[in-house]
Amino acid sequence: MRSFVLRFPGGFKKAMTFSYDDGVMQDVRLSQLMKKHGVKATFNVNSHMYRKTDAPEGYLSLEELKAISDDENFEIACHGHVHPLYTFMPQAAVTDDMMINRKFLEKQTGKMVRGFAYPSLSAYNDTSELSLKSTGIVYARLANNLKNFFIPENWHRWEPSCHHNEAPELFEIFKGDLPGIKPMIMYVWGHSYEFDRQNNWELIEGLLEECSKTTDIWYATNMEIYNYVNAFKQLVFSADGSFVHNPTAYTLWGVLDGNKKTGAGKIIELAPSETVELHL
Ligand SMILES: [Zn+2]
Known about the structure:
Layout: E1 4-7, E2 14-21, H1 26-36, E3 41-45, H2 62-70, E4 74-78, H3 91-109, E5 115-117, H4 126-134, E6 139-141, E7 162-163, H5 167-174, E8 184-190, H6 193-197, H7 201-213, E9 217-219, H8 222-232, E10 236-237, E11 243-245, E12 252-256, E13 267-270, E14 275-277
Parallel strand pairs: 2-3, 2-8, 2-9, 3-4, 5-6, 7-8
Antiparallel strand pairs: 1-12, 10-11, 11-14, 12-13
The protein binds zinc ion (ZN).
The site of zinc ion has 5 residues, from loops.
């Protein structure tokens, strides 16, 4: 049986996503820039700062949080209630912190919130992963810089490609002709307050401009990528691989591996509930 390899919406081999932490006021400016350039992102927000009626200066107000969430270009995800160091907390306290955060964000946005970014690199261990799974969180991002474009095997250990400081350089490679048939994701993370502190908003503006000019990439939120890849995994194949059925609600794209004479390299689109013959 030949492999039927994932392609992102539109038949693209590449996807790109951004992830910004801490729910700070600079997220408003950043989200506006992203929207202008057709780029999507996930914003990871704590909830401790909304202890009184609204957040203190420096953070997103509840109104700004709702406005970002209402925009289809963006996803709001969890970042822990108190920005905690989970590795030094008992399991029950970790689970409790995650649930407070998730419930708060769902109440404020009126949307399902199932994504997460670890509050620090040291917040990941077996305990925090177990708590995430038990609280209904389906993916969680670490804060490291792998400089690669792999799709995660373990979605509760999603390792990004790079911090935004390295992104312009890495994007030069990503937008080029990448070898191999495997799909790839460039994942950029950071904090929008860094652009104020380092006085380098031009870094992200330049990168977003490059993104807007690169049209063979699917720009998506973290959750959209998670949902799409996991829908693709639900495809059903006949025993000899000659038919494929899409049982999901998503339109899915794939490409046949193998010899060009037998139809390899052709992008195949599968509508929801559709069954398609793969022997071309
Ligand atoms: Zn943080």
